[in-house]
Amino acid sequence: MTRYTFTRDAGHRLDACLSGEPDRAAAQLKERLEELELTHDHFQVSVEESRVVVAGDSAVQEQKEKILLALGNVAGVTEVEDRVTAGQEGIFPRFFTVREGETLRDMAVRAYNDPEAVNRLLIANRPAVTAAEEITPGLVLRAPA
């Protein structure tokens, strides 16, 4: 089990209060995964205060990482506890938090030392992020090797 930290005020907003309505919040998080087409029949999502716990089986590491980010990049969430198996144990995601004033081009330099790797970052973070304009401080993005 691994825990990933997220910025409390960044990301998608839910109607439900995480700490006051954990079951409703968990249901809305699962709906968010469905909207992003990141669903899998075997996922369980629960909410404990500002922490989201996700468990189940993922077909591939990429899907697992996108699920972790989709759940973590939600306003109010400060931590995602990863209990998902992906059949590719020993592979750990490379996540980067967007800094104040940072552009996607800056992120490409930080992640890959290549300012032209913007499209690589966009592709890696679809469907949650589809355009450079959607990048805001506090969001966490994946940057696969």
TrEMBL record:
InterPro entries: BON_dom (IPR007055). The lineage of its organism: Bacteria, Bacillati, Actinomycetota, Actinomycetes, Kitasatosporales. Residues 21-88 form the BON domain. It comes from the Bacteria. It comes from Streptomyces silvensis. PROSITE patterns: BON (PS50914). This is BON domain-containing protein.
